[in-house]
């Protein structure tokens, strides 16, 4: 019999995103690295299968697809299974499939509590075999899918013979420089405010100051760096990751 759980601001467990991801990866033998990757619904399908073996058919689940329609289909499979099992948690599919951190983080916190209330402690489940050896969709798949620009799109750096011609340093992209400067100012404000209030130990403040110095140096290098579509993506990706880690640490 299913045990339904309800989470409020008072009863909600204070579990970090790193602990939740570690739990998911350990339970499913997966390699997810972001909470947002739970938005595909595939992991919830398998976690439900672990709890209720006959309650959901994993053969219809799309494990490693970037297609939003496949993700929506996974959530429909999950919703149908939950209704048959008797799980009364409403699924806000439209919000979850958008891949926003907060929506997926709150839902995963609820599911973690639901899982603990319904797990019988059995250890005879092979998650990798249960999904037919399929891998989960992860952010690294996006990076690998970025292809280099064709020769025709390389611009004035290549002459007619195909050899590289000397290209003068390109001017910095204003939006990128502004984002770097904004990150620097935000980080400086966080470090200063934290030190003044006494809520962060000296070691953490020193580490943040070091990060700010490295980011300033990176900003100066931007002016002489020629961006491609791949380098821009990686720049924004790691800048976002760094900012999220800063918020969680401070």
Rg on CA atoms, Å: 23 Å
Largest sheet: none
Q: Which range best describes the helical content: under 10%, 10-25%, 25-40%, 40-55%, 55-70% or over 70%? A: 55-70%
Shape by Cα distribution: elongated
Overall pLDDT: 75
H and E string: HHHHHHHHHH
The fold-level CATH name of one domain is: Actin-binding Protein, T-fimbrin, domain 1
Going by CATH, the architecture of one domain would be: Orthogonal Bundle
Tally of strands: 0
CATH structural class of one domain:
Mainly Alpha
Helix-strand category: mainly alpha
Distance between the termini: 42 Å
Low-confidence stretches: 140-149, 153-158, 167-173
The share of residues in extended strands comes to: under 5%
Features:
250 residues, mainly alpha, Actin-binding Protein, T-fimbrin, domain 1, 0% strand, elongated, microtubule binding, MAPRE
Descriptive account of the structure:
- With 250 residues, the protein is mainly α.
- Among the domains are: 17-131, Actin-binding Protein, T-fimbrin, domain 1 (Orthogonal Bundle); 205-249.
- 55% of the residues lie in helices and 0% in strands.
- The chain has helices at residues 17-28, 42-51, 68-85, 93-96, 101-118, 127-130, 140-145, 174-197, 202-222, 229-249.
- The longest helix has 24 residues, at 174-197.
- The radius of gyration is 23 Å and the shape is elongated.
């Amino acid at each position: 019999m299913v045990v339904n759980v309800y989470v409020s601001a008072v009863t909600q467990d204070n579990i970090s995103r790193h602990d939740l991801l570690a739990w998911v990866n350990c339970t499913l033998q997966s390699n997810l690295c972001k909470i947002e990757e739970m938005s595909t619904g595939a992991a919830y399908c398998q976690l439900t299968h672990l709890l209720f073996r006959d309650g959901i058919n994993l053969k219809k689940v799309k494990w490693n697809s970037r297609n939003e329609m496949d993700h929506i289909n996974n959530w429909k499979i999950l919703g149908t299974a939950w209704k048959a099992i008797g799980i009364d948690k409403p699924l806000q599919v439209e919000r979850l499939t958008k891949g926003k951190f907060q929506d997926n983080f709150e839902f995963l916190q609820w599911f973690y509590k639901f899982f603990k209330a319904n797990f019988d402690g059995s250890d005879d489940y092979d998650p990798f075999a249960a999904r037919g050896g399929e891998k989960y969709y992860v952010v690294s798949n996006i990076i690998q899918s970025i292809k280099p620009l064709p020769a025709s799109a390389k611009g004035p750096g290549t002459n007619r013979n195909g050899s590289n011609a000397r290209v003068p340093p390109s001017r910095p992209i204003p939006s990128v420089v502004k984002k770097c400067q904004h990150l620097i100012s935000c980080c400086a404000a966080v470090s200063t405010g934290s030190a003044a209030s006494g809520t962060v130990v000296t070691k953490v403040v020193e580490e943040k100051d070091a990060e700010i110095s490295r980011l300033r140096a990176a900003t100066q290098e931007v002016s002489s760096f020629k961006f491609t579509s791949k380098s821009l993506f990686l720049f924004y990706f790691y800048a976002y990751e760094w900012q999220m880690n800063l918020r969680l640490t401070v």
